[in-house]
Amino acid sequence: MENDCLSILDKRTNTNYEVPFYKGTIRAMDLRKIKTGAEDFGLMTYDPAFMNTASCHSSITFIDGDKGILRYRGYPIEQLAEKCTFLEVAYLLICGELPTAEQLKAWVNKVTHHTMLHESTKHFLEGFRYDAHPMGMFISTVAALATIYPDARNIHDAESRRLQMYRLIGKVPTIAAYTYRHGLGYPYVYPDNDLSYTENFMNMLWRMAEPKYQANPVLARALDVLFILHADHEQNCSANVMRSVGSSQADPFVATAAAAAALSGPLHGGANEEVLRMLDEIGAKDHVPAYIKGIKEGKGKLMGFGHRVYKNYDPRARIIKQTAEQVFEITGKNSKLDIALELERIALEDEYFVKRKLYPNVDFYSGIIYQAMGFHPEMFTVLFAISRTAGWLAQWEEMVNDPEQKISRPRQIYTGHEIRDIVPMEKRGSSAISTSRP
Ligand code: SDX
Q1: What distance in Å separates the CA atoms of residue 231 and residue 263, rounded to the nearest whole number?
Q2: Distance between CA atoms of 24 and 390, rounded to whole angstroms?
Q3: Which of 32, 79, 292, 327 has a CA that sits 20 to 30 A from residue 72's CA?
Q4: Where does residue 49 fall: left (phi above 0), alpha (psi -120 to 50 degrees), or beta otherwise?
Q5: Is the CB of 236 under 6 A from ligand 1?
Q6: Which helix (H) or strand (E) holds 17?
Q7: Is 66 a catalytic residue?
Q8: Environment class of residue 413 by beta-carbon count within 10 Å: exposed (0-12), middle (13-18) or buried (19+)?
Q9: Residue 312: pLDDT band by 50, 70, 90 thresholds?
Q10: Using CA atoms, how far apart are residues 45 and 355, in angstroms rounded to an integer?
Q11: Which protein residue's CA is at the shortest distance from atom 33 of ligand 1?
Q12: Is the beta carbon of 106 within 6 A of some atom in ligand 1?
């Protein structure tokens, strides 16, 4: 115990405590023995937004924010993006190892045969306004799947959990495509099991009167790479929600819907849509300096920049930038790329951003590619959610199997009123009696 513990002197009681280190942390519960007396609840930690709190063990994703390193199950993201397909990576995230050819064939077959939606889902989607945001429709429809598959509540049954994973990974592209077609007033296109995961997604999005959809292979592969890059990112905001909702033993459909809701925020997965709005607002390359000046004066944030963990270039942004070149060879160059490149060039030289270690993140270039491929900005976060469903399910499976995990229920520092009596209605509001909030 000599050197592998923290020695804490509580000067309130002049008592010394030894708290053992645990894998580079200390267990917060070990602090509860630090008390001023028998009545004292014991010491807690205060960590709003969990800036410095490990909530779980995980072996899924490793990030080194200072070095700009991202690995899924130990494999560098650069190798996965170059050598694998998205469904292969989804298997890796969930099962822990890359699949053999036979395992991958069975996995793809299972997912492919769960791409159809129950017909009642189409009627559910019809209830949305024509201009409903696709992310709102996506979240609601994923949650509604829980009403179609009540067996998903058997969260302690490994086979049932795996079946729900096939259903969710298989159906999220179909739901996404249906939200897109609903917004355009186009008829839904059923899945085509002859096509790959991304080709089928493109088929359900863009097939019109032709009998068989022919996906551009470069664009299909670019989408597959983008799905790989977005698949997981350890304990990000939405993964934390997936684990927290799952910790109450709610089914994986409502937990995935909750995680997607967290992802929709502009500080998280909604940033890619905001990046496009920002580039549209800037309008031209020579407007960039004035825009950056405004950001430095506190007029908003540079969307697609900054990260809670990466204090170096987000490795995903680097790969996306390379992928953009391949997409633009097919779609034609996008003027927004010139604005984005100028924004990045200036920001990376500017002390304001350098001092705060603000680099482009995964959302900075992804939106430009998606738009060039024909997606409306409102679909960008839905694309993020399709891919991240695999990561959320991997995090959920790990949480369900972790013997240390219990229902998530943080503590608080209470700053409200002490006990007080109800004031009769006729006396409320009089200046003598304070009924204002603390
Ligand atoms: C994703 O967690 C994940 O892993 C998420 C994700 C994933 O794969 O799951 O990687 C995906 O969500 C990427 C992030 C997408 N969001 C954006 O691009 C929105 C813009 N970025 C910021 O809102 C911000 O950078 C966050 C939310 C991403 C991170 O914020 P933090 O870690 O809470 O940092 P902070 O807000 O405390 O900022 C520290 C300083 C502040 O300045 P000061 O108060 O010190 O003067 O940096 C400034 C901030 O104002 N700052 C920015 C900025 N981001 C932070 N200033 C201008 N533009 C920005 N983008």
Answers
A1: 13
A2: 29
A3: 327
A4: left
A5: yes
A6: strand 15-22
A7: no
A8: exposed
A9: confident
A10: 29
A11: 308
A12: no
Residue nearest to atom 32 of ligand 1 (CA): 308
Decide whether any atom of ligand 1 lies within 6 Å of the 303 Cβ: yes
Query: Given ligand 1 and candidates 93, 229, 356, which is best to mutate, with the most ligand atoms within 8 Å of its CB?
Result: 356
Report all structural domains of the chain as residue ranges with CATH numbers, in order of start. Answer: 5-45 (no CATH), 77-409 (1.10.580.10)
What is the per-residue DSSP string for 103-167? Answer: HHHHHHHHHHTT----HHHHHHHHTS-TT--HHHHHHHHHHHHHHH-GGGG-TT-HHHHHHHHHH
Counting ligand 1 atoms within 8 A of each CB, the residue from 50, 60, 232, 308 with the most, and so the one to mutate, is 308
Which residue type sits at 400? V
Stated pTM of the model: 0.94
Model confidence pLDDT, tens digit, residues 350-404: 999 999 999 999 899 999 999 999 999 999 999 999 999 999 999 999 999 999 9
Name the residue at shortest CA distance from atom 7 of ligand 1. Answer: 233
Task: Enumerate residues 6+ apart whose C-beta is below 8 A from 64.
Answer: none
* Residue pair 365/65 in contact by the 8 Å Cβ criterion: no
For residues 195 and 398, the answer to whether their CB atoms sit within 8 Å is no
Distance of CA 430 to the CA centre of its chain: 49
CA of 234 to the centre of ligand 1 (A): 16
